[in-house]
Design a protein that fits this description.
Largest sheet: 5 strands, mixed
Radius of gyration: 16 Å
Structural class: alpha/beta
Number of helices: 6
Strand content: 5-15%
Strand order of the largest sheet: 3-2-4-1-5
Distance between the termini: 24 Å
Order of helices and strands: EHEHEHHHEHE
Length: 191
């Protein structure tokens, strides 16, 4: 069984919200508390392996969980958030106002959507799914600590509409909450 969790609250998750992408936004004190709570839930689930994105907000969350479980953290770059190009570090409200057409394309999603100067949703999905193949080859149950966008593209892989439904996957994905990979289809807001 593979369990997924978005990292704990980071500096960029607090209003006014920013696009982090590959930027390293550290956890807040609340994010560290969330990670400790996630560790307790992961222990109850019998997690035997912890995998993570290399980005500091996910890595710090995974380190807290793994320390509580007494397991090593396995870092896989393919679990990182989507590379959001020139949107990284910018306020969401500014992007909506200054780039309305690009924002509308983002809201539509789809395999061809590409962040300006960044990667496409299809590229993000391909690398995230490849990382899950590596997770499946290791000890189970496994916890994958990653990002909201990564969870969405993974969930979209089993959705009938694919990446066209990327925004229907659990909006918003809560910080440091355990999700079963098999249950992601139930987290859609519209099928």
């Amino acid at each position: 069984m593979i369990l997924l969790a978005r990292h704990g609250e980071s500096r960029d998750n607090v209003p006014p919200q920013r696009f982090s992408g590959w930027l390293d936004a550290p956890l807040t004190d609340r994010g560290r508390e969330q990670a400790r709570a996630l560790a307790a839930v992961a222990a109850q689930a019998g997690v035997a392996a912890v995998w993570t994105s290399p980005l500091i907000r996910a890595r710090e969350t995974a380190d807290i969980v793994a320390a509580a479980l007494g397991v090593e953290v396995r870092v896989d770059e393919r679990l990182a958030e989507s590379h959001r190009g020139r949107w990284e570090g910018r306020l969401v409200a500014d992007i909506q106002r200054e780039e309305p057409e690009a924002w509308a394309a983002w809201e539509r999603g789809g395999p061809d959507f590409r962040f300006p100067g960044g990667e496409s949703l299809a590229e993000h999905q391909a690398r995230a799914l490849a990382a899950l193949d590596a997770v499946r080859a290791g000890p189970m149950p496994a916890l994958v600590v990653c990002h909201g966008g990564t969870i969405r593209v993974i969930g979209a892989a089993s959705h009938p509409r694919g990446l066209d439904a990327v925004h229907d996957i659990a909006p918003p994905i809560p910080n440091a909450t355990l999700l079963r990979l098999e249950d992601l289809s139930a987290w859609t807001s519209a099928a």
